[in-house]
Amino acid sequence: MAGHGADEHPHGADRLCDAGDRVYSRAVRRGRVPRRDADPVPCLLELALLHPDPDDMDWLVPTSPQEVMTRLLRGMYDEVSASQRRLGSAVTAVEWYAGLGRQVRPVAASAEGPAIRVLDGLARIQAAMDEATRACTTEVLTVQPGGIRREAELSEGLHRALALRGRGVRMRDLYTHVARHGQGLLTYLELMGDAVEARTLDEVIDRLILFDRTVAFIPANTDRTMALELRHPALVEYLVTVFERLWRLAIPLTAPLPDTGIEGISHREQSIAALLAEGHQDAVIAERLGISVRTCRAHIARLSETLGAASRTQLGVRIAQAGLDGSQHSTTPLNVPGQGSPSVR
């Protein structure tokens, strides 16, 4: 009964429902009401505004309005007192936290900046990079994904590179093999002289720039309009380790790419074959190697022709037989058409 009344009459004695008001007023005027009159308004019993007549349980007698008023005022007083106690506790807590705040020494935080900072917009990224360049004294490590570097990309950071070279800072850059064929990169390296050492790989990680092994910059979105500035020692050290391992695997820009050992198949086509064997689509392969999809498909066509494959399925088999899928070269002879080796870079 109590639950039923609470659902239908969600109120207190200070705001009776219309039906409850009528029944209680009638009980006060008459001194009592039949129990059945209170059936539609169980809230009156729940709020102790009506209670059974001890002389006749079929009747209900009202609690006097004066007692109800006293009860309401006492409840309001208790609520106000509780609010005052909570307010006092909150004020005490605020004063305590304020005292702790005055004890904090912000020197260390302001000297090095936050461990991770989001740079939103090219202007903020450039400003942060310029600041890191000015503070750099020893070494810069960079990973530059993509294919042939455009002149605009190289000239964008040229002023920083020249400033670093002027202070004797050493620079090491990692590129994809495709970047070897860009005249802009060759001109840039010639201009920088022995201040920059460059190596290349089939594919590299996303863009990374490390200054003095204390601050790193990485992209925060695909179009590179946002970046993360990282100063957390553990994160920076991890990125340095990744760079150093890639560096050991990379080939110096001044050294030729190794021969594949298979006549008519270039180093790039060997890389494409390995990625095809992993099940990657043409667009993914092109992005990872830093070439266009059109160029990637041209290499796949040459690869099919060289291996004598008439379909993609047969090409996969031929790639595995030739050991171009990353395994050791197979001793199974291939029936490669007797054609001259295509001139492929």
From TrEMBL:
Record-annotated HTH luxR-type domain positions: 258-323
A Pfam family of this chain: GerE
Protein name (record): LuxR family transcriptional regulator
GO molecular function terms attached to this record: DNA binding
InterPro entries: Sig_transdc_resp-reg_C-effctor, TrmB-like, Tscrpt_reg_LuxR_C, WH-like_DNA-bd_sf
Region feature (Disordered): 326-345
Sequence ranges of Polar residues compositional bias: 327-345
BP GO terms, sorted: regulation of DNA-templated transcription
